[in-house]
Each structure stands twice: as structure tokens, then as C-alpha cells.
Amino acid sequence: MSEKLFRLLKTAVVLSEQFQATLDTTPQAETTSTSTGTTTDPLVLLSDSAKTLRSQVTKLSLLAITSPFTPSAISTVVGAANDSALPSLVTAALLLTPGEYTRAFTSEARVLAKTALREFSTLVEEVLRLANRHEAGALIATQELPAADKDVITSRTGRVWDACDTVIDLVSKGVVGFVAGRVQQWHDLIKDAINELEEWDPEDDTDFDDLLGSGDEDGEDDDEDDDDKEPTQEEKNQIEALHKQKKSSLRVIKPIAQIYPAIISNRLKKKGGLTASKSQIQKLESLSSDLQSIPGHVDEAAGSLYEGSVTDSVRYLRLAKTTAERAIQLVSLPWRDENDTSNAEDKEDKFTVWSRTWMKVMADVIQDA
């Protein structure tokens, strides 16, 4: 068995671990330094390196499970991955900066690159085990590999493919497409909150002893009696207040939920492209921050209502409304190039008009919340 093969396989594992640590510990620079003189597009490099690694893994898998087991051929593939695909993948991930690609996108790229490295390392370790068994005489190079061993290699290969495909997909979506995907996820969270709130019945879920501050320690003995009790006037008033606030909350939350698909369709999908200007990146960063925080405010508003606190519920609703308004104002006008000096009013479109209408609706419904 070739010593070169063992050396290259062990090197691949070590490199993968070192590169993962590098991605973990290297701080994200706000912008890419221009002093290096490089004109390489990090997104192109990231995609190309993932495609290359995927191709090399395919070759490695076939060579590992197909007889005869040929150390020289496997060495060539592993050496190429060590020298090119792995370093390029890490370099590309490190070149992506928050100031040019948003913090969320750059973080996602690092996570996905680490996943690809980890899965590649796991595959290489399996190939190394096969090589050790060949070396020990437990496997014969000219004989077909046992089905169980083939299945392990094939499974590990599939995991590397998936990791590489995810990296490639991230690049194909670009920054704006990635943000659009996240916005859809946040929209789904709000829809879930709406469904839960619509199904909630204050009469079935209200513990009046808690709401009214009762200190009765013998509640268990009185459960059956309590079930037959007619609600007091104070309890009826509380139920009525919760029903009213539930309706008011839904009147606020439903329009807030509408801004998510509207922004995706009219601003994010229309932006397109793999990259955006720095000013647009800043806008995307702010937009993402606002849209991400709204589901939390909505959950707090609903949770406060479930606990019987109308005051807290209204406070969180107003916070959600204010945040949603800020998000709408950020993108009320179409995307503009940095060199575009034309009058902003000339750039208005149907979404701009829709935004104004939405703001008026929110001004009306929040008064009743």
C-alpha cells in the first residue's frame, strides 16, 4: 500500500479540521481589503470550489468502492482536493464580508462551508479505514468490496454532495434571494401566531384565581365546585376584555403579516442579481433586522394576552406596528443605483402607493388595539 496515499488522506482530515477552526475563529471584516489587488468574485469562487469538491468526491467514491483498489488514482484525487478545492472554499467564505454581503449571508456561507469540510473529512476517514484494511490484508484489492462498505462510502458521499449543493444554491440565490428566503420564514412564524390566536378562546383558557390574585392553596379540593360556579361579574368583564383584545390584536397582526409577501414580490424578487451596492446592502441589513424582530413582538403580544395582561399585549402590538412601519418606509421606493440622482417621486410605483395605504390602515387599527 502506498505511503503517499496514507499521508494524503491524513492530510485531508487535518486540513479539514484546521479550515473549520479558521472559519470559526477569523473575525468578519466589514469590507474586503482592496490592497491585495485581487479581482476574484468571492461568490464565484465559493460556487466553483464547491462544484470542484463535489466532482472530486464523486471520483474518490467511485475509486474507493470499485475494484481494483488503486492507491495511485485515489492519491491523485485527494491531493487535488487538498491543494485546490479545500483552500479555495475557505478563502471564498472568508472573503465575504458583512459590509458587502450582509452579516447573515456571510455567516451562512461560513456555516455551509464548514459543513462541507466536515462531511468531506468524514468521507476521507472512511476511505482511510478501507486503505488500512487493504494494508492489513482484510480486504483484497482485486475483489469486489462488501456491500456494507459500499453503502457506507455511498452514504458519506451523498452527504458531501448535499453540503456542496447547499453552498452552490446559496450563491445562485445571491444576497437578495437569501434575504427573501429568510423573510418568508419570518412570515410563516407570524402566520402560525395568527392561527394560534384565532383558535384561542379566553373562556376556555382563563384561570381567574391567577388573574384576580387569589391566594387559595386548596384549589384541588374545590375543582369540581369551581366547574359548576357561575362566573362573577368581574370574571365576565375580564373575559369580555380578552375577547375584545383578541379581535383588536388580529386586526393589527394580519396587516403586519401582509407586508412580508408584499416586500418579497415587489422589492426582493425584483431586485434580483447576486450582489447589491453597499447602500443597498445597508438597507437589506436594516430591513432584515426589522422583519426578523416582528415575529418576536407578535409572540410576546399573544403570550401576554394568554396570560390575561391586556396592557402588555397592547405594548408589544405597538412595538410590532412601529417596527413594521419602519420596514415599509425603508423599501417604499424602488431600488435605486448609487449614481441615480433623479427625483425620488419620479421613481414611485404601485408598491409605494400600497405602502401609503397600508400606513393609513395601521394608523386606524392600532387606535382600537
UniProtKB/TrEMBL annotation:
It comes from the Eukaryota. Residues 201-241 are annotated as: Disordered. Coiled coil: none annotated. GO terms for cellular component: nucleus. Residues 230-241 have a biased composition (Basic and acidic residues). Residues 46-202 form the Cyclin-D1-binding protein 1-like N-terminal domain. InterPro entries: ARM-type_fold (IPR016024), GCIP-like (IPR026907), GCIP-like_N (IPR049317). Residues 201-229 have a biased composition (Acidic residues). This is Cyclin-D1-binding protein 1-like N-terminal domain-containing protein. It comes from Talaromyces rugulosus. The lineage of its organism: Eukaryota, Fungi, Dikarya, Ascomycota, Pezizomycotina.
